[in-house]
Amino acid sequence: MAIQKPATRPDHVRPSIKPANPRFSSGPCAKPPTFDLTNLSDAPLGRSHRATPGKAKLLAAIETTREILGVPADYRIGIVPASDTGAFEMAMWSLLGERPAQMVAWESFGAGWVTDVAKQLKIEHTVHTADYGQIVDMGALNYDNDVCFTWNGTTSGVRLPSGDVIPADRKGLTLCDATSAAFAVDLPWDKLDVTTFSWQKVLGGEAAHGMLILSPRAVERLESYTPPWPLPKIFRLTKGGKLIEGIFRGETINTPSMLCVEDYLQSLTWANSIGGLQGLIARADANAAAITGFVEQHNWIDFLASDPATRSNTSVCLKFSSDQVADGAAFAKAVAKRLADEGVALDIGAYRDAPAGLRIWCGGTVETSDIKAMLPWLAWAFETELEAQKVSA
Ligand SMILES: Cc1ncc(COP(=O)(O)O)c(C=O)c1O
């Protein structure tokens, strides 16, 4: 496609308008636009999290999550230690092994879960992978097995278009790492038995606390199956063969940060104020669409995700496609650094294990006006870096 330059400013001319907020990191992600530390003053600091105010806050965090995400009333929602990683590993260690597992990965976080099953749990399993930018054919999996997958591959910008191919009458469980999808897509709860995410992603909360959502079938498995390996206290969801129900009412396994809980509650309040899940999705879609418009106008940049149907609306991963770029990795790093130095885009370099390029977070806490203000800077940084490359050649 031909390059269409903006009418008023050629790409090599330094833009004058900067984003009001240059934070486009893929985690921890930008705080909601209304965030202010003084909003956290109602946190019950210095009090036990098991006292009435603390318990009420934890329960509110659970129930407001349910309300915004549309989680069915018979699904359990728990706040657990160690962020999304803790929640997902707790689920794998507690549930897997009863039947073979199908491990699905199309980028580095999914690949990490494959490693856990292959090298640590060592259970019977098959591995289904796709290269960065591609996706696994989810319709070709055996759902009589347990299936572990990541909804939105944060490091490749590839996400499932929907859960339609997952059978409702499956015999196995589906374990879904939805950390960069929850609050940005309409998750099909009837297709998900375990769903995990962290507050630090789409809602711009703090890290260290994970959310674990269990379907009734997942609870049934927990109460009917005991894995053959030892489980540390921090992973234990059952006692005497019964689910520890308290965890799903805010009686956490160990001590949470009430400051982080307050911060999450503030994010949820903001999410409700902009129209809940549909408002959040619309904001992420608008951000991603602004980038799509830019990519369509510039023939030197492209999405890592090859199929538009699988393109993420949160972690948008881009690659430099121009053959004028000599060393892709060095070039992408230099562009990201230039943008950071200008204070127009922070933390947008591709993930360390992913192909060279940029990753721009587009989740709902990011303002579309900031994405739009940043993109001319990206064009400028590309042109400037090309010039610099020529000089040093
Ligand atoms: C898909 C995915 N899974 C897991 C993680 C790990 O999350 P956390 O550091 O919150 O445990 C991340 C973090 O970026 C992620 O993107």
Automatic annotation (TrEMBL):
Pathway of action: Amino-acid biosynthesis
Cofactor: pyridoxal 5'-phosphate
Region annotation (Disordered) ranges: 1-50
GO molecular function, one term: alanine-glyoxylate transaminase activity
GO biological process: glycine biosynthetic process, by transamination of glyoxylate; L-serine biosynthetic process
Keywords per UniProt: Aminotransferase, Cytoplasm, Pyridoxal phosphate, Transferase
EC number in record: 2.6.1.52
Protein name: Phosphoserine transaminase
UniProt cross-references to CDD domains, sorted A to Z: AAT_I (cd01494)
Superkingdom to which the source organism belongs: Bacteria
